[in-house]
Amino acid sequence: MQHKEAILSSYKRITPYIHNTPVLTSEGLNAIAGANLYFKCENFQKMGAFKMRGALNAVLQLSDVQKSRGVVTHSSGNFAQAVSLAAKQIGISAHIVMPENAPQVKKDAVLAYGGKITLCASTIEAREVATENIIKEIGATFIHPSNDLDVIYGNATACYELIEEHDYLDFIVAPVGGGGLLAGTALSASLFGRNCKAFGGEPIEVNDAYRSLKSGKIESNNTTNTIADGLRTQLGDINFPIIREFVEEIVCVEEVEILEAMKLIYQRLKIVVEPSSAVALAAVLKNKKHFSNKSIGIIISGGNVDLKSLPF
After folding, report:
1. What UniProt keywords apply to this chain's record, in alphabetical order (predicted)?
2. What does the pLDDT look like over 87-135, one tens digit per residue?
């Protein structure tokens, strides 16, 4: 019950600040998949990704003292932008630790939203050290991009909206990287759906979540060799137990399958999505037998792509 009330409270809290994003369908994609697909388009969310929901939910619950000291996070992409914009919307400072090799387009977006960037070496250790230094120096509150309950509950509101609109879905599929979106999606599918099961889609090149479900403990990756740059992070100790309990299965997809799914979304839905978003559709297409003739929600996680380096 705690999860259900927390998601509903989160939804009420963030609703004035977010878009209720559209749900798109395509008869052509339904024919290809052999199922009825409902795409929840978080690429139309403010700052272009679902991450706005979790960032806002965390930022809006800060005390006055915490607000006066600002927030800090480490991210090379969408969460950096989300925290920057969320902080700007309520008039507090946002400190963003980014790796030196983060794309300039993402650095520019953070700056445009008012975030203050601290660059570091491109390792998790360097990110954490730089973040700790900022916390010690100014007392900023740390918000983790995916391993934070307030962030997970905020993320869960995308799936909640989808189910409110289409309450007969059999499955809901979301991409998994750090695990914050899949954990939130799985909670909403379980709590608000009618016997609705949550699935994850994951690149086989960084399939730590798939392996973690099998082994029962958090696994890590030796490489980050995937086009789905938003999914190169790994699960945390807060979201993993939720994923273990509420996610039915994680489907691993090849790079070529991600690319094909991305092309299909561009061609059939006529929308801009980032590679990570295409992973969920790729998982459905790979597992056609399982999803045949079912009604399936697909969370399109974001649309922040560098148009100069599209993969096709």
Report:
1. Lyase, Pyridoxal phosphate
2. 999 999 999 999 888 778 889 999 999 999 999 998 778 989 999 999 9
Catalytic pick among 10, 75, 76, 146: 76
Tokens coding 156 = 């869960």
pLDDT number for residue 306 = 80
CATH for the 52-142 domain, from 3.30.450.20, 2.40.40.20, 3.40.50.150, 3.40.50.1100: 3.40.50.1100
**Pairing state between β 23-24 and 36-41:** antiparallel
The answer to whether residue 75 is catalytic is no
- Topology (CATH level 3) of domain 2-49+149-309: Rossmann fold (3.40.50)
229 and 178 in contact (C-beta within 8 Å)? no
Q: Is 107 a catalytic residue?
A: no
Query: Where in the sequence of the chain do the CATH 3.40.50.1100 domains occur?
Result: 2-49+149-309, 52-142
Q: SS3 letters for 158-210?
A: HHHHHHHHCCCCCEEEEECCCCHHHHHHHHHHHHHCCCCEEEEEEEHHHCHHH
Which of 299, 274, 301 lies closest to 105, judged by CA? 274
Q: Of the residues 40, 46, 51, 107, which is catalytic?
A: 51
